[in-house]
Design a protein that fits this description.
Layout: H1 2-20, H2 23-29, E1 55-64, E2 73-82, E3 99-100, H3 102-112, H4 114-135, E4 140-153, E5 175-193, H5 195-262, H6 268-303, E6 312-313, H7 327-337, H8 339-359, E7 365-378, E8 381-393, H9 401-468, H10 473-508, H11 511-518
Parallel strand pairs: 3-6
Antiparallel strand pairs: 1-2, 4-5, 5-7, 7-8
Helix pairs in contact: 3-5, 4-5, 5-6, 5-8, 5-10, 7-9, 8-9, 9-10, 10-11
């Protein structure tokens, strides 16, 4: 019976090691490890384009045809798109006292504008992806504890024991157990040599750097958006001030005409014409005030303030000459400072490393693993076991997958190189456009100022002639409209000049740091 029991136990142990016992325990008993069984890293495909913008901010200038008494003026527009149009609330972290300076608006935009927030979160995501790629190169350590209670039906697996003649009194049971064992084990795996995993990590580092540089470029876009919105509010408020002055002038002229009518010096038609001019100025003023409210709400949305017009601007930004810089120097500075250009270069580098990762899929790789643990029927009846495995993997044929990965990586690299070349040309174009707008706006400021002086003198002379009875009300209304047009021309020209300076600062890069040099706050 003792011999039969030993045979049965040996059969159970052998069958349990090969079939029933969980893999880690079986490997430990036979002195091997699970190392090298994990799938080999493959090249991680990148998106075809390296441009990850969630929106954009651009400054455009278009001419406005003037009237017969005014000059043609530039119409500057700051176009804000995508997430840059919104923000998260800033008043919890930065209390607001109801007065907003340009510097305060820019700082709030840099921290709370949704475009900047989104780009920063994308950079954090790239950081996490880089850490994941790095994990394929670092050791992986795991541990487990296992306690097993098991009963095995050997006959169900087709095992039949035929004993030699003379052992008829003995029999081996087909059902063995229940029996118990436990296993406490730690396992270490390490990639020793894997060029694909290495190049994947290098590509992830370049992608992370590109994300961080894109976040820096987003700061310039936020400065352009917030600064442009601030300038728009200033210009809109200046138009309101001008509208109020013209309404006061229209009322004064109406009262003057009414008095002359009472003394029989002018007909009723002149009184009606003056009254119409007053109503026209009132309607114009109402429209201008509505525009101010909308511009203030837009500025609040960009900077995380409550979406209301119930606040005041504390800064005035009059006309001032830009910093002295020539076109060639501006282009050189832009090529060395623009964060989006550096981000595009990092995207090209990432694509090059990913192509190398795809090519490295054809190279051998080496991995190692080891485990050590304690296994037995009980903690008091156990013994330490270990296993060490070194694996050399030589790829021979993967059904053409490697060739497909290389072709895809080459396409990504070609696309990102094309985007880099295009961005270089775009930057040079941005600088040239900004210089052109700046020169045109500066010239128009001078012309608009002279035109305003002349039209104001004409209005004064026309009033005097009307009082002397040598002019009529038609000439007076026309002179007043000329003053209105000239004032609006001057306001638009100063606004266009400030926007051109702001756009030049963005085109050269690092607009957040050089803003005060271009827009001299009064």
């Amino acid at each position: 019976m003792k011999f039969a029991s030993q045979i049965a136990a040996a059969a159970v142990l052998l069958f349990g090691a090969l079939v029933c016992t969980p893999a880690p325990a079986a490997f430990a008993q036979v002195g091997s490890s699970g190392g090298g069984s994990s799938p080999e890293p493959v090249a991680t495909p990148l998106p075809l384009s390296g441009r990850t913008s969630s929106g954009g901010v651009t400054a455009t200038q278009s001419p406005i045809p003037g009237t017969t008494t005014s000059v043609n003026t530039l119409n500057p527009t700051i176009q804000v798109q995508g997430s840059y149009t919104g923000s998260v609330s800033s008043t919890a972290d930065l209390p607001f006292n109801g007065r907003l300076s340009l510097q305060d608006a820019v700082q709030r935009g840099l921290r709370f504008n949704l475009g900047a927030v989104g780009i920063n979160q994308a950079a954090r995501q790239a950081s996490g992806q880089s850490r994941i790629a790095r994990s394929a190169l670092l050791p992986n350590l795991s541990a487990y504890a296992q306690d097993t209670e098991e009963q095995v039906n050997l006959a169900a697996f087709g095992l039949h024991f035929n004993l030699p003649p003379g052992f008829g009194a003995f029999s081996i049971p087909t059902v063995v157990g229940p029996f118990n064992y436990f296993d406490l084990r730690a396992e270490l795996t390490q990639s020793v040599l894997n060029f694909t995993a290495r190049d994947n990590y290098r590509a992830s580092q370049d992608t992370l750097r590109a994300g961080q540089l894109s976040a820096q470029d987003a700061r310039d876009l936020v400065v352009l958006a917030v600064g442009g919105a601030y300038l728009q509010v200033i210009a809109a408020e200046a138009r309101v001030v001008s509208g109020k002055a013209q309404l006061d002038t229209a009322n004064a002229l109406y009262q003057q005409t009414l008095q002359q009518f009472q003394f029989g010096k002018v007909p009723q038609l002149d009184v009606n014409r003056s009254k119409v001019e007053v109503l026209t100025q009132q309607q114009r003023l109402s429209s201008l005030q509505n525009d101010v409210n909308k511009q203030k709400i837009n500025l609040a949305r960009l900077t995380g303030l409550p979406p209301t017009e119930q606040y005041d601007l504390s800064d005035d930004i009059p006309y001032s000459a830009p910093p002295p810089v020539v076109f060639e120097d501006a282009v050189k500075m832009a090529m060395s400072q623009r964060a989006d250009l550096k981000a595009a270069e990092a995207q090209v580098s990432a694509a090059q490393h990913e192509r190398d990762a795809a090519r490295a899929e054809r190279l051998p790789s080496i991995a190692a693993s080891a485990n050590y643990g304690d296994i037995g029927t009980s903690p008091s009846d156990s013994h330490g076991t270990f296993g060490v495995v070194g694996t050399l993997n030589i790829p021979i044929w993967a059904g053409g997958r490697v060739g497909g990965d290389i072709e895809e990586a080459n396409a990504v690299l070609a696309q990102r190189q094309a985007e880099l070349d295009d961005l270089k040309n775009q930057i040079a174009g941005d600088i040239r456009d900004a210089f052109s707008d700046l020169q045109a706006a500066a010239s128009q400021v001078d012309v608009a100022q002279q035109n305003l002086d002349v039209t104001q003198q004409t209005l004064d002379q026309t009033r005097q002639r009307l009082e002397a009875g040598v002019s009529n009300n038609v000439e007076l209304v026309q002179a007043q409209e000329s003053v209105v047009d000239a004032e609006l021309d001057y306001i638009n020209s100063v606004f266009a000049h400030n926007v051109a300076k702001l756009n030049l600062a963005r085109a050269m890069g690092q607009a957040a740091d050089s803003l005060s040099q271009y827009l001299k706050v009064k």
